Structure formats: structure tokens, C-alpha cells
Amino acid sequence: MNRIFNRCIITTILLIICDFKMANAQQVPDELFDDVIPALEDSVPPENNEEQLWQSSFPSPEPERHTLSLGLETRPVNSQQMALMEMMSAKADGVFINGQFVLLKNPQRVMDFYQAAQYTTIWTFENQLLNEVEPLQQALIESEQDGLNPHRYHLDIIRVLRPQAYYHDIISLEVLMTDAYLALAGDLANGIVDPKTIDKEWNAEPVSDEQLMEWLAAGIRNHDIFTPLHQINADNRRYQTLKERYNALRAQGTKATDGLIINMERLRWMPQDWGEQYVITNIPAFNVEMYRDERKIYETRAVVGRADRATPRFINKIQHVVINPTWTVPPTIMRQDKLPKLKNNPAAFDASYEAVSASGKIAKPSSVSWSEGNGYSLRQKSGQYNALGRVKFLFPNKHAIYMHDTPTRHLFKQNNRARSSGCIRLQKPLELAEILLADNGWNAQKIQASIAKEKQQWVNPVKETPVYLVYWTTYVDANNTIKTTPDVYGLDKKLIRAYKKSIVQ
């Protein structure tokens, strides 16, 4: 009885969808799609407070449900839509094909797609496969060019299908092919390994399921499912260079190194759009670069965190440049280094440090009773010998990690520069400050004039520049030359294991 009732509900929904499609196909006037000049009143809030109060007394409308345009509105109704709706309403994590149960890669994503597409079939019609199956087969096979495993995307089943042929398990095949396409698009855009399982602090936003579904919808709408896939990582010259090397090795019959493959994966973790201007710190390469329109405009050697105090990998935006920064002594250094010296000589730090209370009161260190819990911190004054040098670059984060100058210059001559407590020391910080503050009207002379005042000064760049703290042991430089670095934090082995496990699933 319940099954009959459910089928009635589904039939009703299907009829509503059909009526909606017919109405839209027949009744929408062309002028609704013309551009119109927006009115000023549409972009300002109403001035009538009573009207605002009246409006606020009603509950907020529910957010609009995501819908997809497939360009199939004029196609006849497919009698198999009811079977598709039933399958999606069952919320199964797989489908039966030839009596075998096949797990889907992401059942929820597939259900969301068909709901947004109003349960329109895209690879099949009635019991017949459409021509789109052939480019899908080719796309899955070509995934090997990205170091992926085509069999991860149900290729064993999909590769034997033929356009215009009739199949008994037609809806199961429909769902399987959608799952394959969305899974491939997701792996190309976001990688097959969850970056947080390797770098728990990595915070780049992955490409959303909604965007993956939009790519598939665009492919169906434009009768070209290849282009959305080929556009993924297309503007990432580093990825494309590693991909070219990978395929050149394959053509030679040479096995690609694990380092090449896993660093392609790391590049898939990056955003699709890095920004017109960005700063990138490649931790194991011990260098910092800045790019504008993919042209390198700055480079410097860097000192990064040592293995036991590793520099975390994450992305952010540079929001502040601080000239003549002060430095607050961290609690660990305070206990282990400074307090013993203060006990032996209370005036040891009076010349270059100051005591700062929780309320901001400043006093000489020798005037404070340095016992634990006294509420004072020790802060190094601005100046030539400040631990942070003459400038620091802040991209606020929970790790208290930033880039800065340093009075200790000899470490820049070393090959292994994993020597800091986590922050990033720059060999040429003033050049970076000049570039970041150029739109503020600052030049080298103005920066030097500010330094000469020996007072801390905060400047917020007009443009907040993205900064990427990454870990690439095989990477591409500004000249598209592939280089390798030592695995200073030992992260490669962990990623290699995770990648090899994921690629066969």
C-alpha cells in the first residue's frame, strides 16, 4: 500500500515538472531575457521604518533550491523519469547492473544533481543510450594523463556501452555515468586525497559540489562534456608543466616518480583562481616569490620552521605591513631563557626591552617582580637588533605565523634553512614591502624614512594580497623548469601511501 502511495506522489511530482517545462517552453516572452538598466531604488534600502518593521514581522523566505539548466526543456517527457525518481528517493549508495551491486563514489552528490535537474536523464532516453556516452568514455580514459586511474570511474562497465543501444538496466547506467563524470571532475579539481588528512591546517576551499554539477550541466547544455573537464587546472601552469612531464615519461615507457605524481596532487588542492597577484612560500625550497599576472616580480631566500616546529601549510591574505615592529617574547622562551637572566640581573634587558602589563601599562623590566602569573610580558623594542628586524608582514591566523626581517643574516647562506620556530624570515624584506605598499604611495625612500624614526608604524596595503604557504618537493619555477627539494618534514611518504590507497578505490 505504501509503495502505491509513494508512486502516486512521484507521478504527481513528475506531472508538475512536465507542466512546468511546457509552460516555460511555450509562454516565456523573448523580452524577459533582454538586458535592463537597474534602477537606483533597487539597490538602496527603503527609508520608511514602519515598512521595514512590517516586512520584518514575516518569516524570512527559505533559500531558493539549486536548479540546473540542461537545455533539454523541449525534449519529450521520458517515461523512465519515474524510475529515476524512485531510485533517488531510495537513497541507495549503489546501483544494480546485470545483477551486480556497484557502489557509487558519491551518492549524495548524484542525488543532488538529479534533484537540481528535475530528474531529467542526460545519458539515456527511454531504454536507449544517447551519443554522449562516447565522449564520456574518452574522458574517463584520458584521466590517466593526469595520473589518475580510469577504473576508479566505473570504466570497466562504461567502456563497453554503445550509443543508440537498448539496455535493461538503463536507469542504473544513467546514474552510474553521472557518478563517474562528477567523481572525475571532483578528483581533477580537488584531488583524490583529502588534504586535511595530510596537512590538517590546509584551509583552501575545495571546488563545491554545486560547481561540479554546473560543469556537467554546461557540458550537456553545450553538447560538449570535454570542455568543462579540460578547463579544470587549465590556468595552472605549474600543474600543466608537471602533467606534460608525466605524459612524456609515459610515452617513453618510463615510470613517473612518486614525487611527480604526489606534487600534481598537491597542486589539485590549490584554488582554481590564485589571484592576479599573490605571494607563495614553498617551504621545502626555502624561498618566497611574488607573482603578478603569472610574471615573477619578487624572489628571496627564506628561513622556515625546523622539523620540530614546522611552518604550517595554509592560505591567507597579507593585511598589514608593520615598520619597526616590536617583539613579544613567547612564554616558552620567557621561562627557559629570559627569566633566569632576569633573576641574575634584573636590569639585564632595560636597554632594549620593556615590561607590558595586561592592561597595556609599560614599565622597565627591572621594576617588575618577575614571578609566574604576574600579568606582565616582556616586549623587545623596535630597532636594528629587534628579533623581527625592520619589517614584518601579517596575515592574521591562529598559528601566529608571519613573514619578517631578521638581524641574523648568516642562515641565508645555508642550504638547509629549516631553522626558525615556525615563522618565515626573509632575506630581502624591504623589497617586498615596497611592492605591497606601492598602491599606498609608498616607495623605498618613504619606507627608509619611516624606519629612521625608530617607531612602530602599521600600514594596511590597499590590496590584500593572497599568500600561499605550500609544501612542494617537486615544483615548477618561474621559467617552467621542474626542480626537486629534500622532504624536510617527511610529508611525502605519508601522501604517497594515501594516494596509492585512494587511487584504487
Automatic annotation (TrEMBL):
One of its GO terms (biological process) is cell wall organization. Residues 277-450 form the L,D-TPase catalytic domain. The active site is at residues 404, 423. Residues 44-66 are annotated as: Disordered. Residues 1-25 form the signal peptide. Keywords: Cell shape, Cell wall biogenesis/degradation, Lipoprotein, Peptidoglycan synthesis, Signal, Transferase. GO terms for molecular function: carboxypeptidase activity; transferase activity. Pathway: Cell wall biogenesis; peptidoglycan biosynthesis. Pfam families: Scaffold, YkuD. The keyword Lipoprotein applies. InterPro entries: LD-transpeptidase_YkuD-like (IPR052905), LD_TPept_cat_dom (IPR005490), LD_TPept_scaffold_dom (IPR045380), Transpep_catalytic_dom (IPR038063). Belongs to the YkuD family. PANTHER family: L,D-TRANSPEPTIDASE HI_1667-RELATED, L,D-TRANSPEPTIDASE YCBB-RELATED. This is Conserved hypothetical lipoprotein.
